[in-house]
Amino acid sequence: MDRSINFRGIAGSAGNIMQGMGKFVFGNEGLESKEDSYVERYLDRISNGTIPDDRRSAMTELQSLVAESRSAQMSFGAMGFPILLNVLKEDREDVELVRGALETFVSALTPIETSQGPKTEVQPASVNSDLLSRETENISLLLSLLSEEDFYVRYYTIQLLTALLTNSLKRLQEAILLIPRGITVLMDMLMDREVIRNEALLLLTYLTRDAEEIQKIVVFEGVFEKIFSIIREEGYSDGGVVVQDCLELLNNLIRHSSSNQMLLKETIGFDPLISILKIRRGSAFNFTQQKTVNLLGALNTVELLLTGGPSGESGKDANKNANQAALAQKNILDHLLLLGVESQWAPVALRCMALRCIGNLVLRNPQNLDSLAKKQVGEEPHVQPALNAILSIILRTSIAQEFVAADYVFRCFCEKNPNGQALLASTIAPHPNQGDMHGAAADMPFGSILLQALLSSDVNGDMEACCRASSVLSHIIKDNLQSKDRVLQIQLETPTPSLGRTEPLLHRIVTCLSIAASDGENDQSSHPEESYIQPVILRLLIIWLVDCSNAVNCLLESAVHLNYIIELASSKRYAACVRGLAAVVLGACVLYNASREKGRDAFAVADAISQKIGLTTYFLRFDELRKSLAHPSSELQHRKELSRSSANSMSDFQEIEEDETNKDDQHPVLSEIFDSQFVNFLSKLEVDIRENIMDIFSRTKTATAVLPAELEQKNGEVDGEYIKRLKSFVEKQCNEMQELLARNAMLAEDLVRTGGGNTADTSQKPSSGRDRVQIEALRQELEGAKRQIEALKTEKSQIEAEANNQRNLAVKVESDLKSLSDAYNSLEQANYRLDAEVKTLRQGGSVPYPDVEAIKAQAKEEAEKDSEAELNDLLVCLGQEQSKVEKLSARLAELGEDVDTLLQGIGDDTAIPDDDDEDEDEDDE
């Protein structure tokens, strides 16, 4: 009976909630379904049953039903959670019943796929996960079951916790942090039997994702030792999916934590990691899919160590340098070269990640840079420098991503390494066997192989090799003036050597660019995606011209080059990226031009841009370039988290490459090579180009070819007059020059501002600075007239208000006059009445009476005096008011107001009553 009360009381509220949700998800039919009645019947037997076997049988049947029916899952979530949780608390001694309860929970949290219903339909499994993880006490109860002796209890508990993680990761992470020794209990499971250990490993992998506090506790509990112990037991890279889970857990711990990386280095060291990367030379058929995934996980660990931690974290660079040195001491470079360079039978994804790790290993590290420069690869007698082998990969691979990864090695090798750049540049020279593309390639020095690829378009039209070689050359000369000048001095034979002439390598690069442009036009229909050949060659020209006036002068030696670059920037036949990069090349020819020769100086280039492209269109090319290069950073793609769901796709690299190529119009190579660093470099360069061109158009040319005749002294002209005339001429020229400078500055500023993103119709804008000044003056006059009108309106309002006040005052005076007149009339009536009384008294007898006449005369005299005084005051007031009214009337007339109309009707309603009214009043008396 206790269980029955528990069942009815605890399950009531949860049942209402879940039934309402079930009605929302499944409709009314789900509530009355047969499965619901079965679930309720089984739960009643489990809760109220007294026979253990019957309770176990009901639990088994309930588990089978919940595992097969979504409706049963929902009904179980509505009614069964409190009952089975109570079983886990109160019936620990009945191991079989506890097993059944845990297995039922696992079934309730496992999604059931069905072809019926919409895809957006709420899954009962996710709803049940949310209900179970809502209370921390439930998680604590499950963790306590991990201490049970029964194997299946621990196994199903681990499975249940893992099922909870898939739907309620954040909530479970928070709950486990609140439970004392919660992480410790899970860590102990790593030392359990193999099946439970594997499940616990997967559980910890989920828990440590983006959970810094859990990561710290796990590391404190000695997880590094346990991880590598499991990897060693499983056979390193030859192990199964358990090795993959271990590496995923390891990468979760070190991905966003420099401190965890340091702890790994100081406690375990990098020897176990190196052991995973060891492979047998020549093991062509040993790369199974699982081994490939395991090696990718280990290389991902290496990559995380070589980046040093998240960007912006203090101590990141120091930690990165320490990791570079520690890994180099373990000879990791040999293993990476074997994976990425020598094992060409290895999967593409593995080779690419190994190459990227090589780049990160040597980046800004002098010792590792020297090691790579001296490293030899291959076996006797076919041994060659590692850099030559990596260059060969760049030139011969048919996979774009492998070219990008190998190119990344040279980018890292040359960054902040002027000695290495100079060393590579010094080897660039024509080779006697230059015509043989394959026969003597192994015996050629690095620079000769590179130069041969650059010239391959002349030999067999291989623009792909020319483009890739251009990318490598751009790394060699970047930010290194010595290397730029060294390569600039290379002279090549012309296509017609019989003439005995040579041409600089820079001129040949421009020729290759024109060939690529013509090929791009012919193949435009067959290749809808944007080609990367022209942009890569243009990037080489930009890097070469920046800060190198000799390169600018060499490029402008032939007017054909300038005209061709202008055509690239102006013609709409080319892609926006090509037009924008060509505009940057032209801007570099202006910005870094130190020539004084007419036709090749900065003013001549800027003038050509203005005449053939137009400054407005030219500056719009920068905006187009910025938009075409605005793509998500690709660097994060190489640090993508390796998990069970993404492992297979990451190992099959060619499939990913095809998908990326088809889903975006931009070629994937461009999004890799034109990284955020180069885009920022272009943005800064754009600002300098805009300012420089504006400055050029704000000043005139300094040289004057012919002296004006006014500067020569005339015959018979004395020196004083000559000097006076010269002074007048100079003043006139100065005035004209100042006006011209002002107009040019205004025009350039307007064009630069227009090019900065305002694409409005320029036909509506002033055509010159003088027009703008006139328009500005007219605008100011218009604003002044508007202000005067507003002032007059204000004054008019004030005058109208004053007139209204005077009008009201006049009405008041008229009213006072009327009151005075009424008082005088009343006084006259009183006199008449007194006269009548006097007459009556006289006729009445000899009764003495006062001298009425005398009193009347006295009263009348006093009244007249008072009336006269008041009347005089009123007349004075009326005179003053009349004067004001006249002045106001005159002012209103000036403003155009009709004074007679305004005064019409004033005083009509206050007129003095006429005589008829007075007679009527007397009759009334």
Automatic annotation (TrEMBL):
Vesicle tethering protein Uso1/P115-like head domain boundaries: 378-692
Cellular component GO terms held in the UniProt record: Golgi apparatus
Residue stretches of biased makeup (Acidic residues): 911-925
Subcellular location: Golgi apparatus
Keywords: Coiled coil, Golgi apparatus
Gene3D superfamilies: Leucine-rich Repeat Variant
Residues covered by region (Disordered): 636-665, 902-925
Major localization class: Golgi
Domain Uso1/p115-like vesicle tethering protein C-terminal: 795-919
Coiled-coil region list: 775-837
Protein name: Golgin candidate 6
Naturally occurring in which organism (per UniProt): Urochloa decumbens
Top-level taxonomy: Eukaryota, Viridiplantae, Streptophyta, Embryophyta, Tracheophyta
